[in-house]
Give the backbone structure.
Amino acid sequence: MFLSFLASVLQYPVTPWALQGVLEYFKQKYGNPPMYIHESGQRMQRNSTLEDLPRVTCLQEYIGAVLDSLRNGSDTKGYFTWSFLDVFEVLDGYDSGYGLYYVDLDDPDRTRYPKLSAKWYSHFLKGGSVGPDSGSIIDITREYLTSVSPNEALIE
């Protein structure tokens, strides 16, 4: 019961400035060791829309902070999002998800559906910009909404 309560009140603020500050602190204080960022993501309710714009914004801001720290000389070697697929989360089971892909647990084949964040991340990895003036979120959102069938846009 406590874990259920804890999961319901845990909301993680988006603080990209803090990530950049930590990377630059390690650079100055510890001689710039190689750094890897892992399990970076945005918690969202499962069985909701595939248009996870808050997660896209979170990814954009955190990756932007990592890029800024790299420009300032940080030896950051990697950034890994949490997670590729919606999986069982320790604090709230299958009630929330961090995945770039929605997994339909009611389907015996466990069909996977890409969320907007999967499209954005793919676009970024192929050389897309993360800047707020790039328009990439809006463009990818439009492209995504025209490519997804109405049944896929909202998972019930």
Remarks:
- Helices lie at 2-9, 16-29, 53-71, 116-125, 136-147, 150-153.
